[in-house]
Specification:
Helix content: 40-55%
Strand order of the largest sheet: 3-2-5
Structural class: alpha+beta
Number of strands: 5
Order of helices and strands: EEEEEHHHH
Distance between the termini: 24 Å
Radius of gyration: 15 Å
Length: 139
Amino acid sequence: MKIHLKRNEKLFINGAVIRLDRRGSIELMNDAQFLMENHILQQEDAKTPLQQVYFIVQTMLMDPTNSHLTKYLLDSYSEMLLRMNFSNEYRELIGSIRKMVDAANYYGALKVLRQSFHLDQSATEAPQELPAVKQHEAA
């Protein structure tokens, strides 16, 4: 997979932060969990339930050393979502995300979540706040 980066754009690969001092490309020769800077969601911007799930999974990708701890938060939060009055499509999405995370496919889970943010518009109940998740600052 070839990734094109703009000057000073950050790329997170398996917990490492990479920044090019000029425009360039990086080719990943094997499977890696990565996140482009423009796909990073700040905690204060995670206002809907799916955005909050996204933030949790994003934290797992960016801090793989502690992902087993963050997974407890995901399990707890997603269980709370499953008990709420959401559509079957919403519930199935949460189940799919949990399966991807269980398989350590954080990148795939984030991609599906980004494509599903529109489902939050149909949510009839929403948790008020995401429990605090400590995330490393982008270097």
